[in-house]
Design brief:
The complex is a heterodimer of chains A (332) and B (390).
Chain A: H1 2-28, H2 34-44, H3 51-60, H4 67-79, E1 85-86, E2 91-92, H5 93-97, H6 100-128, H7 133-147, H8 150-165, H9 184-221, H10 224-231, H11 236-242, H12 244-254, H13 256-273, H14 279-288, H15 292-320, H16 322-327
Antiparallel strand pairs in A: 1-2
Chain B: H1 3-9, H2 29-36, H3 39-49, H4 51-66, H5 70-73, E1 94-97, E2 100-113, E3 120-131, E4 133-143, E5 147-155, H6 174-210, H7 212-227, H8 230-239, H9 247-277, H10 281-288, H11 293-330, H12 341-346, H13 351-356, H14 364-384
Antiparallel strand pairs in B: 1-2, 2-3, 4-5
Classes of the chains: A mainly alpha (332), B alpha+beta (390).
């Protein structure tokens, strides 16, 4: 297990390196940079710009250096927890993002949890009662969840929560807590607000999870050992839980690698629509204003979230399945 | 053992019946048809059994054919502003008036402003019956941008209106704009998939066929891209498209961006299929006879998994359509004057729109239909892809 852990950790290093290069290239792609845009804006408003200040800023943030030097400065800073400087807010990125990173983590983690908790019983039900009305119903619901664009579902939910329950479910906490320090009341408020975005982001993932678990379990259930177990008179519940379910659980856990990027993607969109205090809305605005370090840190953080998530799922899988533990790799 | 005894032992039984080479198991015509059918025919037969997939395929076919005639099919032109009918709610098409059959018509509406909410309200005027016209002359347009025409399948009565799905904030007919939007939204998925198909087949093919370091580099690359969440990356890339670009360049830019991130699934499928197939005897035989890798891949291996490729391509188109919708909704994708379903939904971006003008959300219906249809068709194709698997 230890060697497996070590190997799995080592693999993450080149992955993260490539991701950081990719992210850096992406945030460098827009023509021009924030300073140039800023300058143009000031000049178009007829304001005087102190060239010395601009030159100082350029030099301060290495904008006059060649690309690879800029990259290494940035990556070196990241390794030391220095996320760079936000031009738009004129503050270090770490101060701008504040609680957003934690709230994003809470949101994404809750969504993954939601997907597992909902799709597990439904998947088992659909597989054991194949072609029943319930099975068809859940399949239909799942497909609708898959096809309905997240952002529209979020909008509709916002509206109906307003009309039916008379509450505003936008945001992640009651307004009085927004700039308050963390307290029990604030945590409670976050938990109360969390269900709506979790529900919206979770629907599409839940649909594919249910289908996956159903298909896997059906495959297992048609095998001969299950027939033998039934023939020997084992109770149906015991037959199901003793082996087939445990076999079908493997891909279920391994699938987090597919689910997580999808969840993170969805959460970015949904948080823009529901104006959640997570990374989404700020990523959008930083991309629009070419605030490259802010955007870069967010992209890097989101990628890190999925990479670490996959790492956790691999460990879970290895713990669950000795075949993987001893081979040291996830078999297809 | 001596030769003689061996020969004696091997005394064969010889049937005295005359040998008839045509005397063998008789096949029924159906069996014969089945055994002689080509792979693609078998796939087609199998797909036909999948009702939902066939229906979905038909729906998609109708939609894709109709994008050729959007100008003719839509009752209004794309940009016609009916400035007297801003935010007009959907009008229903009636057939009967006071119990007598009239044929399809709409009621004219009276406009007033609710003085409390300042919301425009339109009330049906039962005296004013506007019969719809068919194959009629309406808003002029340039068909395919080539020649002037004004023929429409259906138009409102002279001086009347026909806003089946209402109008937007400029008084443009939502239905017509949806029909025009289909042209962009439906093709953007195809264009994007073309990009990701080329990348996926090239990279996955090289990885699967050559193996070794090519394979490990490709694998790492796929891993890295797959671990990045798609939408933020799409957002970042499309934010990088220069604002000065013309709408058509933006359109191509977006398709390329969609394809650049999406090829990994396809590359994986190609790679694993190739890895399995290149060990087959016929691949070895071809190699021994001196065939070049290009010929082996294209001639011997590709036909074997072409059907799988088509299935997985079909399954990844909806993802692209949803991606475009999401990007345009955020204002990062396509921009007016290009009209796609995402651009239309951009109008319904705030909760006010949902509360006061809910019909602005109608363009989501074709999105859902198309995504579902592609999913069902893809599922059917995937099941039919290997017709030799009982």
């Amino acid at each position: 297990m230890l060697t497996f852990l070590a190997r799995r950790l080592l693999v993450m290093i080149p992955t993260l390196f490539f991701i950081s290069v990719l992210v850096f290239v992406v945030i460098q792609l827009p023509p021009g940079d924030f300073l140039t845009t800023y300058l143009n804006e000031l000049q178009s408003q007829g304001e005087a710009v102190d060239p010395a200040k601009i030159a100082y800023l350029k030099q301060q943030y290495g904008l006059d250096q060649p690309m690879y030097v800029q990259y290494f400065d940035w990556a070196w800073g990241l390794l030391h927890g220095d996320l760079g400087f936000s031009f738009e807010y004129n503050l270090p990125v770490s101060e701008v993002v504040g609680d957003r990173l934690y709230l994003s983590m809470v949101l994404n983690f809750s969504t993954v949890l939601f997907i597992y908790i909902v799709s597990f019983p439904i998947g088992i039900y659909s597989a054991t009662r194949q072609y029943s009305w319930g099975d068809y119903g859940f399949t239909l619901l799942g497909f609708l969840g898959l096809a309905m664009p997240n952002f529209l579902f979020a909008l509709v939910l916002l509206y109906y929560a307003n009309v039916v329950f008379g509450t505003s479910i936008g945001g992640l906490m009651d307004p009085e807590y927004i700039n308050a320090a963390w307290s029990f009341g604030k945590v409670k408020s976050v938990v109360e607000h969390l269900w709506a975005p979790v529900l919206v982001i979770g629907t599409s993932g839940t649909a594919s999870m249910i289908r996956r678990l159903r298909a896997n379990l059906l495959d297992e259930l048609s095998k001969q050992y299950v027939v033998t177990a039934h023939a020997k008179g084992l109770s149906p519940g015991r037959v199901l839980f003793k082996y087939p379910l445990r076999m079908a659980l493997n891909p279920f856990i391994a699938d987090i690698g597919n689910i997580l990027p999808q969840v993170v993607s969805g959460s970015v969109l949904v948080s823009v629509v529901m104006s959640l205090p997570t990374t989404g809305p700020m990523l959008l605005s930083s991309l629009q204003s070419q605030d490259m370090y802010l955007a870069g840190s967010f992209l890097m953080f989101l990628a890190l979230l999925t990479v670490v998530g996959m790492f956790v799922s691999d460990i879970l899988l290895a713990w669950l399945d000795p075949r993987i533990r001893f081979q040291g790799g996830v078999s297809e | 053992m001596s030769r003689e005894t061996q020969n004696a032992n091997n005394d064969h039984f010889v049937d005295t019946q005359p040998f008839d080479p045509w005397d063998k198991e008789e096949l029924t015509p159906e069996q014969e048809k089945y055994f002689l059918a080509s792979q693609w025919k078998l796939i087609w037969w199998r797909l036909k059994r999948h009702r939902l997939a066939v229906v979905s395929g038909l729906i998609l076919l109708v939609m894709y054919v109709s994008i050729l005639f959007v100008e003719f099919l839509s009752p209004y032109a794309q940009e016609t502003r009916n400035s007297d009918f801003i935010h007009h709610p959907p009008q229903s098409i009636h057939l009967f008036h006071d119990g007598s059959f009239i044929g399809p018509f709409t009621y004219g509406t009276d406009f007033s402003v609710d003085m409390e909410t300042l919301k425009p309200t339109y009330i049906d005027d039962p005296q004013k019956i506007d019969r719809l016209r068919f194959f009629c002359s309406g808003d002029p347009y340039r068909f395919w941008g080539l020649f002037e025409a004004s023929l429409h399948l259906v138009c409102p009565a002279e001086g009347g209106t026909m806003f089946v799905f209402g109008t937007d904030r400029l008084g443009r007919d939502v239905l017509s704009r949806m029909i025009y939007g289909a042209r962009i939204s439906l093709t953007i998925g195809l264009m994007g998939i073309a990009v990701s198909f080329v990348l996926g087949v090239l990279i996955g093919g090289a990885a699967g066929y050559f193996g070794g370091w090519v394979d490990s580099v490709a694998q790492r690359l796929i891993e890295v891209i797959r671990s990045l969440p798609e939408i933020p990356l799409w957002m970042a890339l499309s934010a990088a498209l220069p604002v000065t670009w013309s709408p058509i360049l933006i359109y191509f830019g977006i398709t390329i961006i969609l394809g650049l991130i999406d090829w990994t699934g396809l590359a994986r499928a190609v790679r694993s299929k190739l890895l399995a197939l290149r060990e087959e005897d016929y691949a070895l035989a071809a190699r021994l006879m001196g065939a070049k890798p290009k010929r082996i891949i294209a001639r011997h291996l590709l036909p074997n998994f072409a059907s799988h490729l088509i299935a997985s391509v079909t399954l990844s188109i909806p993802n692209m359509i949803l991606g475009e919708t999401a990007l345009s909704f955020l204002g990062l994708g396509l921009r007016a004057p290009i009209t796609s379903w995402g651009v239309l939904l951009n109008e319904a971006q705030n909760i006010n729109a949902v509360a006061v003008y809910p019909w602005l959300m109608i363009p989501v219906v074709p999105v859902i239909i198309v995504v579902l249809a592609f999913n069902f068709l893809g599922d059917g194709l995937r099941d039919a892809a290997d017709p030799y698997k009982n």
